Amino acid sequence: MRQDRGYDGFIPNPLPPDIEYDDELRLLLRKADAALARLDGVTEVLPNPDIFVAMYVKKEALLSAQIEGTQVSLQGVLEFEANLRPKEDIRDIREVINYIRAMNDGVLHLSSGDLDLALINESHKTLITGTRGSDKNPGRYKDKQNFLGTPGGSILQASFIPPPPAKIEQLMGELEKFIKEKDKLPVLIKIALIHAQFETIHPYLDGNGRMGRLLITYYLYWTKSLSRPLLYLSFYLKKYKPEYAEHLNKVRFHDDWEAWLKFFLQGVIEVSENAIQSAREIIALKDNSIKKLIEHKAGGMNAIRLLDLLFDNTTVSIREVADELKISPVAANKLVNKMEVLGILREITGKERYQMFVFVDFIRIIEKGTRV
Ligand SMILES: Nc1ncnc2c1ncn2[C@@H]1O[C@H](COP(=O)(O)OP(=O)(O)O)[C@@H](O)[C@H]1O
Ligand SMILES: [Mg+2]
After folding, report:
1. What is the mean pLDDT of residues 59-65?
2. What are phi and psi of 155, to 5 degrees?
3. Domain range annotation of the chain
4. Residue 224 Rama label (left phi>0; alpha psi -120 to 50; beta)
5. Could you tell me if the CB of 360 is within 6 A of ligand 1?
6. Whose CA is closest to 316, among 8, 20, 51?
7. Rounded to whole angstroms, how far apart are CA atoms 171 and 168?
């Protein structure tokens, strides 16, 4: 679908639109609310919810960047974080690292602060600085007309022309007001409206997709709909990328908010179920790993303690193992080697010294759906 009104920028009406709730929309909303509540509950029973959340943030960052064409793997990000030289393009990895930082900084801010334009601009700055888009006004609104379409295409072939720079201040002001408004709209409806409106405004020269997706997590955390930032839609939005763009265009040109809302709520249900499933697999992994150790007569005290450590820290060095478990480097080395033979750990540096080991099965659970 294309914009068919010449090539002036499109100016959206302020939120909220009139929404017609049919049975399908009502049912989806109920199901999505329930899925979100279940997701919130499952983190209570995890061995280490913080590490699960941290891993999911990495996963979201990867997928969100992949929607924009960045090609990075979870392995690449973990290597970078372990100070190894990654095999993948460092600029791509930096985009993912920036997204992780923006998410973590944003969430920290929101635990006591407000969701406002200052935070959004600050996050955008973190997102774009030091990447390919760093010449594109990090943290500042666009100063040129932009348009969406095929890369390298002209504005005449644009699928969508967002509002002109002169309108952004006002439109973002209205969006902020809507974000903060205490109304009776269900939170999932509200954030779906906010995301679509943000993408329509397209306030920045680059990074609008990523910033708009960060906003989803921000809003749900800020409104305390989730006690931990754990709902990430990029998995779904990447899987249905053409539909995602199509729905946004239908909102703009046909006022078809209902179809977008249904699409969005389906996504909430799907990604919540996925995350719940992953959490269950992580819980089972603990038992299964202990069983594996015992079967191979490797279930000594230190092995169990190392396993606990791995649930807190999925990448370790011999030295960390020795320090954390308070055992000698020689003993740590032996223990790690045993875990490697059993396939619990895998060495990732390929070097003889300063080796790093990852908790293979944990990573496998998290990385599902992130292979490029
Ligand atoms: N008609 C459209 N076609 C494609 N993407 C669209 C359309 N309208 C809005 N978008 C949004 O724009 C984003 C791309 O904008 P861009 O500023 O390049 O963001 P990023 O740099 O994060 O990729 C998409 O991820 C999507 O969220
Ligand atoms: Mg882009």
Report:
1. 95
2. -60, -25
3. 23-277, 284-366
4. left
5. no
6. 51
7. 5
The alpha carbon of 110 and the centre of ligand 1 are apart by a number of angstroms equal to 25
Class of the domain covering 284-366? mainly alpha
Q: What is the pLDDT of residues 109-153, one digit of tens each?
A: 999 999 999 999 999 999 999 888 778 899 999 999 999 988 788
Residue 330, token pair as written in the block:
């020689």
Taking the CB of residue 201, how many other CB atoms lie within 10 A of it?
24
Is the CB–ligand 1 distance for residue 134 below 6 Å?
A: no
Q: Which ligand is located closest to the Cα atom of residue 208?
A: 1
CB 37 within 8 A of CB 209: no
**Is 23-277 CATH 1.10.287.130?**
no
Using CB atoms within 10 A of its CB, is residue 295 exposed (0-12), middle (13-18) or buried (19+)?
Answer: exposed
Ligand 2 centre and the CA of 67: distance in Å? 9
Identity at 325, one-letter amino acid code: L
What's the 111 CA to ligand 2 centre distance in angstroms?
A: 29
- Helix and strand totals (H; E) in the chain: 15, 3
Residue 5 has pLDDT above 80, yes or no: no
User: CB of 260 closer than 6 A to ligand 1?
Assistant: no
Q: Of 79-93, 184-198, 215-229, which gets the smallest average pLDDT?
A: 79-93
pTM score over 0.90: yes
